[in-house]
Amino acid sequence: MSDWQERITHETAPAIRAEHELRYRIAAPLVLGGGPWCDLGCGNGVAAAAALGDARPAHAVLVDIETAAIALASAELGMPETVQLDCDLTDPVDLQRIDQALLDFEGNAAVTCFEVVEHLSTFLPLLDWAGRLARERGATFVISVPNDAFWSIRNPHHLTAWSEGAFEELRGLLPSEHTLLRQVALTGSALVAWDGERVQHELEVGAGGEGMVASHFIAAFGPRHGDLWRGAVAVQTDMLEQRRWERQRESNVVLAEQMAREQKAAIEAQEEIIVAQREELREHTATFDEWRTYIHELERELGRPLAGTPEAMQREARAATDLHDSSHSADPVEPPA
To answer: Following CA atoms 247, 249, 254, 256 in sequence, which dihedral angle do they give, to the nearest 10 degrees?
Structure first.
């Protein structure tokens, strides 16, 4: 029941939305650079729309595993003419479909792939495809993965786990010319006039340095990998939405705990039934053993083989055969004259 925020919506916590928005902001110079933009794992398009503001690329290819999410992203971006592809990014055939879609547009493509790789059973087909497009077609890629070591709790939606060490291994598979960034979380506050009039603050923020823990790792490669925007995003917290989000999570936790209690009670009840049935089986087995002992004593007195032994079973088989043979060998009854 935990809300892992795998799909960003308008109801997502502001801090998490800002986190996703920042990734699209750093790629904005590439997205708006004149060539087609391809967003792999586009989701609902909320973060991309917020990051791009009123600007839009001339052409976009939106890709996701869910068709409904792509339609929502197209609407959120206000780009009804986008190419929409539902694709499995581990399938070379689907990657070729994306490749073909990008061929229809002029200019070097910018490809974003944020918080997607960890959901793939293997990222090698995607990486091979991306490297080829960067070399042969001048495409620039920007990808991100979460620092799962930072969260310390396994995300059930992630098929691969990422840490700084794992990202270093990925780095070894990237083209030699690339840019790497660490994304870190910020905490802050602001003051406004008593009447609440909106004001735009220019913030000076210190980030990085000793003790820094990255929430996400970002890599860019391709001809324009160095053109990523550098900066930070701070958003005003909508306390009503934040509280609703927190209450929803609290509600989900309570429901999950209640379900766990009910399941535990059901398991305990089932275990009690099993114990009772096991005891009943023991009693029946003891009774059966007593009867078998009594029958064997009678059989010994009569000089007959003990029931259940091979000798007794052979004797019963012979008796059944003799009865069958005698029933078929009896003289037929002649009809009356």
So the answer is: 160
Instruction: For residue 46, give Cα distances in angstroms to 53, 61, 101, 175, 241.
Output: 11, 16, 23, 31, 16
**Whole-prediction pTM:** 0.68
Run means of pLDDT, 10 residues per run, the chain, 337 residues: 57 81 94 95 93 94 94 94 94 95 94 93 93 94 88 74 86 90 84 82 76 85 90 72 65 82 90 90 86 82 80 77 68 55
- Give the whole-angstrom CA distance, residue 184 versus residue 57: 28
Identify the helix (H) or strand (E) that includes residue 218. strand 216-221
Which residues 6+ apart lie within 8 Å of 5 measured at CB? 12, 13, 16
Contact 88, 130 (CB under 8 A): no
- Rounded Cα distance between 326 and 61, Å, is 87
Buried b (16+ CB within 10 A) or exposed e, 263-302: eeeeeeeeeeeeeeeeeeeeeeeeeeeeeeeeeeeeeeee
Displacement of CA 212 from its chain's centroid (Å): 28
pLDDT digits (tens, 9 = 90+) for 276-286: 998 888 888 88
Q: What is the CATH number of domain 14-189+210-237?
A: 3.40.50.150
Residue that is written with structure tokens 């890629």 in the block:
141
Residue matched to tokens 């090698």: 124
